[in-house]
Amino acid sequence: MQPDALRALVDRHEISELSVRYMRGLDRLDLDLLKSVYHDDATDDRGFYTGSGHGLCELAVQLLASHLANHHMLGQMAIDIEGDVAFGEIYFQAYHRIIQDGLEMDFMVMGRYADRYERRGGVWKIAHRSELNDTCWQQPASDDWFKATPQALRGARGADDLTSQRERLRTL
Fold first, then answer.
1. Which of 43, 84, 157, 170 is least enclosed, having the fewest CB within 10 Å?
2. Residue 18: how many CB atoms within 10 A of its CB?
3. 11: phi then psi, degrees, rounded to nearest 5
4. Cα-flanking dihedrals φ and ψ of residue 64, to 5°?
């Protein structure tokens, strides 16, 4: 493998890991993890929010904390690298269990992130992210399976989630 090809492979991996950590930060409500994917002077634009990347992280954790559950999933990633700058189109699906008018509702968003990444001091981070929402819908919650199967393992946030319990996982 050519050195340039190896460098491009490593760069793409490091850049894609930013979105992986971002989604984990959202689902676990981990503000420090969320902020770690943005440069300190990064910007973010959602239409309903335009400002700093770190400010978006704070807003996201505040908004998602009122949800009963969240599940963010990544799709295909197109990443084009131009030296120390790269551009990405990252597909996502976001599930939110919310309470609306006293009823549990499932709210889904599908879209893409339009990103600019910059490598500074040898480290790739997001310099700008825009969220493009392609479709969304909500409907009454319909997961009767959990009611019929209460012993099923469930995800949680932060330290309560099994993925945050390494020592416990070592012994299972």
1. 170
2. 20
3. -60, -45
4. -70, -25
Mark out the alpha helices in 96-165 (DSSP H runs). Answer: 144-148
Contact status, residue 10 vs residue 3, Cβ threshold 8 Å:
no
Q: Report pTM.
A: 0.91
Q: Please return the burial class of 42, using the count of CB atoms within 10 Å of its CB with bins 0-12, 13-18 and 19+.
A: buried
Across the range 68-91, mean pLDDT stands at 97
Give the CATH fold of the 3-171 domain: Nuclear Transport Factor 2; Chain: A, (3.10.450)
pLDDT at residue 21 tops 90: yes
CB 136 within 8 A of CB 114: no
Which tokens is 162 given?
A: 């099994």
Coil, strand or helix: which one is 20? helix
- H/E element, 139: strand 123-140
For the chain, the structural domain boundaries read 3-171
Cβ proximity of 98 and 105 under 8 Å: yes
What span, in angstroms and rounded, lies between the C-alpha atoms of 92 and 108? 11
Sequence letter at residue 13:
H
Share of the chain above pLDDT 70, in %: 99
